Structure formats: structure tokens, C-alpha cells
Amino acid sequence: MSGRKQFDVGTALDQAMRVFWQRGYADASLDVLGSATGLGRGSLYGAFGNKDRLFRQCLDRYAAIYGARYEQALAAHPGDPVRAVEAFFDVILARIADPETPTGCLIAQSATQSPTLQEENGAKVRGLLDLQRRRVREALAGASADPRVLDELATYVVAVNQSLAVLSRAGAPDAELRSVVRLACATVADTLARTAPEAAAPR
Question: Is the terminal CB of the chain with fewer CB neighbours within 10 Å at N or C?
């Protein structure tokens, strides 16, 4: 049929996403993106627009795939915020251990290049980090700690997640990553226990 795309857009987007994930925005040239997707420049532009628009679409796809898994894990343990955080990190460790996925994290990789990104792309990356923080914060909402403490813990959990991405990209072994997660979950549990109203009440 005349004018019909002769390639699967979703597959091409997944392939482009892997390039940005592995190389970062700066080193993901149009030639490399074209080689990975099997598309010429004209087809890339026709399907996705310019490199910046393609990058944003890849961020959206990454967030849709992995964000849904994070959200499901965080929501699976209502009333038990510590277990929710543990489940969140279980999903992250599973992604890192998956041999079919690049090392690190596309959002973490992109965040390190924020100063060089187009303003709209930088805002997109920050927005995805904020979304992750909000999801964690919602999972902590059932705890009886001060809201400010819960805000700080949500930021802390996201910071640990980004650290895991950097460590895995640097070749840290699974045992080391799991040690970081154990300490992070213990910190969340200890902070919630210490700041609960019944713990803070004078005796």
C-alpha cells in the first residue's frame, strides 16, 4: 500500500531506546541510531521527527515499561511501606540482572547529561525522576511518620535507585548491589520506626 511504513514503529523505538540507554544522548548519533533501527535518516525523521523528539519518545517508552513495574511493586503492599520499598528494589535488581537489557538505567544515564540536553529534554528527565519520587512517596503514605520525613525518605529511595544504576554500569557485582539495597531498606524501616508518633511520645 502506497505510503505505508514498511517497519514496526514499536520495534524501531525499542532499538533506538537501547542506543540512548547504552551510549547516552550525546553519543547516540543519527548514523548509530539508523544502524540499530535499520532506518535511513529520512525514515527516522519521517517516523519520529528529529533526534530530540526521538529521544523523548524513548524516554516515554522506557518510563512506560519500567515505570509500570515499579508502580505495581510499590502498590502491591498497602499498609506496609517497608515491604513496598523492598518490592520496588526487587524490580530494580531484576532489571539490572537481566542479560537482555543494557546496564544502568536510561533515566540515570540521561540525568548525568542534563547540562548538555535541550531544555525540553532536560525537563523531561527531571519530570521522570519526580514521577518516580511521587510513586515512592505514595507507597510511604500509610506510615505514621511526619510528612516531611516521608518526603525525605522518598527522595532517599530514588537517590539509592539512581546510585544502583551507576554502580551496575561500573560493573559492581550483584552481591554488592544487594548489600546497598539491604542497608537502604533497613534505613527506611529504622527511620519510620524512630519517627512514628508512639516512638516520639515522652514516657
Answer: C
